[in-house]
Every structure is written in C-alpha cells, then in structure tokens.
Amino acid sequence: MSATPVSSPAAELTAAQAVAAGTDFAELKAGTMGLFWNEFRPADGACRVWHWRDQQARCLTPDGFSVRSRVYEYGGGSFCLSDDGIIFVNEKDQQVYRQGLDPTPPLPLTHNEQCRYGDLQWHEGQVLAVEERHGEGVEHRLVALVEGSAEVLAEGADFYASPTISADGQRLAWVEWDRPAQPWTVTRLMCRARQSDGSWGAARCIAAHDESLQQPRFDAQGRLYCLSDRNGFWQPWGELDGGWQPLPAKPADHAAAPWQLGTCTWLALGPQSYLASWFEGGFGQLGLRNVDGQVERFASAYSRFRNLAMDAEYIYAIAASPISPPAVIAIDRTNHEVHILAGGAELLPAECISLPQSMLYESAGAFARGFFYPAVGAKSPTPLVVFIHGGPTSACYPVLDPRIQYWTQRGFAVADLNYRGSTGYGREYRQALHLSWGESDVQDACAAVQHLAERGLIDAGKAFIRGGSAGGYTTLCALAFGDVFRAGASLYGVSDPVALGRATHKFEGDYLDWLIGDPQQDAERYRQRTPLLHAAQINVPVIFFQGELDAVVVPEQTRSMLDALKLNGIEAVGHFYAGERHGFRKAENLAHALEEEWKFYCRVLGE
Length: 607
What we know:
Layout: H1 15-20, E1 24-31, E2 34-40, E3 47-53, E4 56-59, E5 79-81, E6 85-89, E7 96-100, E8 107-108, E9 115-123, E10 126-134, E11 138-146, E12 149-154, E13 159-165, E14 171-177, E15 188-193, E16 204-207, E17 213-218, E18 224-228, E19 235-240, E20 243-246, E21 266-268, E22 274-280, E23 283-289, E24 295-297, E25 304-310, E26 314-321, E27 324-332, E28 338-343, E29 357-363, E30 366-373, E31 382-388, H2 402-408, E32 413-418, H3 427-431, H4 440-454, E33 458-468, H5 470-481, E34 487-491, H6 497-503, H7 511-515, H8 523-528, E35 542-547, H9 555-567, E36 572-577, H10 587-604
Helix pairs in contact: 4-5
C-alpha cells in the first residue's frame, strides 16, 4: 500500500463493503425456549429478532416490522422473552407487540400513539416497561402492561431505567434520577416490596450516595445487587450481612455509560459470585468470580463483551476482537471452547488488518488515552485521521471497525481517542469533562497528533479530524481554536451549543449545563466555545454530513455552520440525507458519506 492516499484498487476494502460489514447485535436473551438476539443489518436499516435453537438460527421479525425503541431517543431494551414467545417494541409506531414462535403475525398490546416504550421485562403475564408519554411535555414512568392496560409502578422522578422483579415476585427494583443529573453522574436505586394483599408497598431508596448506579439484579434468594461507582469504578455492590456493601471486584469499570436501556454487562449469582465483563486498559475482559474468590476467565481472544447471558451449559455474549467484527458467541462452561452462532465473518485477511496499539499520552498537564492504528504497509510517516467518538460521555473500543480499516487500507493512520471524559477508565476520568467540553477534549485531540509525530509515526502536516454528534463539536472546536489539522469532517455535529440546548430532547436537556455551564450565568464561556461564532477562525476545508430528521442536532445547526464558512470563502461541503435521524442507518448513505469524506481529504492533499 502507498503511504499517501491514492485511488482505491479493487483489492482494498470499498466503502460499500465497510458498511456491509457493519452488522451488529444487541439484547441477547437466554431462556428455556433457546437464545434470542436483536440484529441490525445496514442493508435496510432494520432491526430483527433472531432465535437460535437446535443448532439453527431463524429470523422471527416479519417484513414491515423493526424491533427498536426510541425512549430517551437512544432506546434500548426493545424486546423481552415471554412464556411462549417474545414481546417487542415496533420501531415505526413505538407500540408493544406480542409474538409467538410460530409464523402468526404479531399482535399489538398497546394502542397509545402518545407513548413510547423501552427496557421491557416479563414477569408472570406482565410486561414491565419504561413509558415515555409525549403531550405538552415529556413524562416518564414505570408501568406494568397487562392486556392493554397500564399499572403505574413508579412515577414522579424525571427518568427511570432497569425495572426488575425478583424470581419469587416479592421485590421490585429500578434505577431513577432527576434533572439535572445524567445516568452516569447521580442516580438512585429504588425498591418496593410486595404486601400481604398483593399490592406493592412504598418505594424505598437502597442506594443514593452521590454515585451512578446501573443494572440492578436479584439473585435466586431475592438479594438485591447493582453496579455502583461509589468507590471510583462501576463495580458490583449488594445486600451483604445486613448492609449495602461492595462485592470483591477488579478495580475497573464493569460497564460503559448507560446511554441505552437494557444493557447487561454482569449477572449476579450469589453473595460472592457473579459473571461480568470489565475493562483493563480499555480492553474488555470476561470472567466468572466463583464463591472461593477465584476468577475464571473466558474468551481471551476478544476485547469487548456486551449483553451477557448464561444457562447451565454456556455463557453467551456479543463479542468483538481486533481482527473480527461483532459476533454472538457461546462459551462452553466446562472446557471454555468458543462457538460462533452469528456474525464474526472474516472481513480481511489477518495480515491486512491494522491492529490497535494503546495510547497513553500527556495533554495539558494530564493524561489522555486512545488507540493507534498504523497505515497498512506504510514505510514512512503517513497522513493521520483522528477519530472523535460521540457522547461525549462514551468511548471507543479496540475492536475491528470497518471504517478504521477503510482508512488504514488507503494509507492513512488512525488515532481513535478516548479523550478525558470517556468511559471505561473510572469515575474520575469520566468526570474530567465537567465544564470542560470544547477545551480538554480539543487539547487531547491536538496532543495526540504531537505525540504520534514525535515518534515518527505520522506526518503532522497531514492530520485530519472527524467526529459524529458530540465528536463533531470537538472537531469544529479543534478547527476553530487550533491550527493542527489540515481539514475536518463533522457528522451531525454540534456547532451551536446554546441552540442545541433549546432544541434538544428531555434526556439531554441539562447535559450542556454539566459540560459547559449555565447558558445564562456562563454566557461568555459558551461564546468562547461556540464554533459557529468563531467560523471566521476556521481557515481549512470542512465537510458536513447531516440527517434531515435529526431531533438531537437539528439540520438548521449544520446549515448555519456551512453557510458561515462559505461566506468566509472557506471550502465547505454539505451532504444532507432525507429519512436519516441522529446517526445514519441506511447502507447507501453510510457508504456515500465514507467515500465522500475520503475523496474530500484526497483533494485537500492534492491527490
């Protein structure tokens, strides 16, 4: 391969191939009826439930349906198992449907067009769910759906997640939080007990200690557990010896930020035993802590684990590695043998894959992290593309990403950054972005270029930056307030935080106050960190990609930034996609955006 971008030979990964390899999985469920998962395929942008049984997989979701919740806009928990099939949320109308395992059509359980549902759980004929009601405002509550009617389980808080009932039906637990908190800053673990007349007693707070709690679990004896970051990392805590105490655990995050509902990165098995995944230096680990304190590790070839499930014979997970895309795997609990049930197909020969190298580097008196992917076959310092993940309270992972390989196949190195504020490295690192968005993340992006250039790995004069959503904001800030990058790409990125605060949805309604400050009291800080107001300081080309139906970053933001750059005589290109929301889903649009971005950088470099 050339060390500089050239036109793509047939042997290289095309944009269409990179997108087609973007099949992903979510919400793994194991039960007496077999194994189930939700599968997204870029070809049509739909999500479908698949059923694995007797060594075969079949799709359960009929044409015309897509299994996806839009509660909190990011959704999650879009299906659960029932006694004889599945319960799911249909993407188009956001209503709950019941479906058997036979070919009969799904039947609606709800008929309320004002409501969305997510985080579905099944218990003895009831569907527990987070209900999102849209009227004059947006209200959330926990409900139990029974034959079309809704029994309210909890209301009054601003947000809810993870309703779960103990196996004996005697205890109900959930996580809740109020504005201005986010689910990764301060939440409460709540519980109600069943009364003698069958009703639920008063709600009682189990844990709320300036901590973030997620994924409550009951063991077979009805003891309650939850992940808490009270000691600096998301680790298991539980009802032990009459009190709320930490379980023995690695000093590491056992979960990522809960942007979506229905995640499962750990399973409680007893007072001293649990199955969990956790991060070590950004790399995922999977292990079973036994009652004797020993940790039995599994599937060491993989570097990220999601949506854990298990039965007497197997541990199940959605897993990915630096050389293989996401797959549904089954791990034999006796001999640790890994079986791939779906996904994981070879994208490229191993020798053609650029592998992640951990980055830990200095930035403005602190340290930042990420992963470096060298250009394939490069013999000299190469151009660099810096990837900025969204969120911004999110993370990138050292797994095979077809988009990254697309760039490294074309002579570009990639730095995929977990800038300060990213998850996976503990609460302190995650909280470092408090009031610092548009500043510390930009410093980390610029410092990464210097770090790699000093080691002779990249050509600092040919560095580019790209990001989606919050990553687009960091990209625009880096271009406006620095002179490190030759050009950049903003994918549905924030250019005006104040306008975003006025237009965004309830879930993120106070997020900007945490990231930057109060728009009124800290107006000058906002002015200093608003790329749109400093468009005149951007003197390099920028390309924009935007969905017309985006409710998080509305299209008008992108159009305003695009017009401001053009007015200043800067080369600026915009691509707007009808039918796309926040984050593109249609294969043709994903491929088009990827290829247009590459062509744009090639023009900038004069190739």
